[in-house]
Amino acid sequence: MMIPEIDIASLFDGPSDARDLVDREIFRAAGEIGFMTITGLPDDCLSRDLRKDLLSIFELPDSEKRTLTRKNFVPENMNVYRGWFPLQNGYPTYKEGIDIGADIIDKTRVPDPLDPLTELTPLPDLPTWRVAAEQYYGAMSKTGGALMRSIARALSLPEMQFDAAFQNGTSTLRMIHYPPRPSESFGSEDKDFWAEYKGEQRYLLGAAHMDSGFITLLAQDGVEGLQAKTRDGEWIMVPPKEGTLTVNFGKLLQRWTGGAIKATIHRVIGNGQRRYSVPFFFEPSINTVIAPLEGCGEPFAPVLYGDHLWEATTGFVEQKGIAHLRQPKGVGV
Ligand SMILES: O=C(O)CCC(=O)C(=O)O
Ligand SMILES: [Fe+2]
After folding, report:
1. Which of 119, 143, 154, 296 is the most buried (most CB within 10 A)?
2. CA nearest ligand 1 atom 8, residue
3. ipTM for the assembly
4. Ligand 1, pocket residues at CB < 6 Å
5. Structural domains present in the chain
6. How far is 280 from 4, CA to CA, in rounded Å?
7. Local confidence pLDDT in tens for the 333 residues of the chain
8. Closest to 11 in 3D by CA, of 161, 175, 145, 190
């Protein structure tokens, strides 16, 4: 099974036959493999120069990474949800990186001390990186919005169905570095660390999972490793291709559409090379009530997005040890 490649340029214009066709192609990709490769993005946001600037954050000295690191790894720091996560031994997932929130482009965000999801991002003093991260966050928000409206149309919903929810969105821009795994990174129980690929045993870099948000827009930096699980349970490679983004569908979209669109299971395997990737998790405001959509999927009990997000995200190793810091708020009466 191939990952479809879709030129989404027509999604940024008004109604047209070309746009209708793209809507159908995206919907088909969502229903089949759950991944697509997209081109036709705005603002030259996939240039090698821009990605080089984004990844320059990994050149920070360890002492500076430490000041950005979350409290569960560095107790004297205050941030728990945004910021740096370090390499951790003993898990199928082996990566370091940074999670950046909407405050990078929206200076009006005010944190609520009682809700870690509203925390501001601790940012490094790297002016070139900062400009690149702002530009990229903006371009991904715009692209996510265009894909979201396409999905609404394909579901026969009003095309602006989701717009209000994303007004004050909480999307996460993440930058990831996966170094080759040293032997001390493996735990004693070794069976969870390995995957078979073309008759060889490969170590995992990212455990099998579904993303928690609406959709994920992923820039891969040339080194392959991302795999999708097909509906038949087979793992297939989602190869990187210069000038494209990889897109998959998240748990929020599955929940919100009552299962009409399924979230995509994926993982990352290693090949001995260093790997970098930059996912953007497109997410609505934490105050959005996720409730059944007219005529779409199976009925379900409404849930607050912040509650969904906290539950989904605190299950990942990079968010280890923080689940107790936020209680569900519920959807009220
Ligand atoms: O590195 C990749 O290609 C995928 C990363 C990923 O799945 C994630 O961060 O959720
Ligand atoms: Fe993922």
Report:
1. 143
2. 279
3. 0.99
4. 174, 176, 206, 211, 218, 220, 226, 266, 268, 277, 279
5. 5-283 (2.60.120.330)
6. 20
7. 789 999 999 999 999 999 999 999 999 999 999 999 999 998 889 999 999 999 999 999 999 999 999 999 999 999 999 999 999 999 999 999 999 999 999 999 999 999 999 999 999 999 999 999 999 999 999 999 999 999 999 999 999 999 999 999 999 999 999 999 999 999 776 678 999 999 999 999 999 999 999 999 999 999 999 999 998 999 999 999 999 999 999 999 999 999 999 999 999 999 999 999 999 999 999 999 999 999 999 999 999 999 999 999 999 999 999 999 999 999 985
8. 145
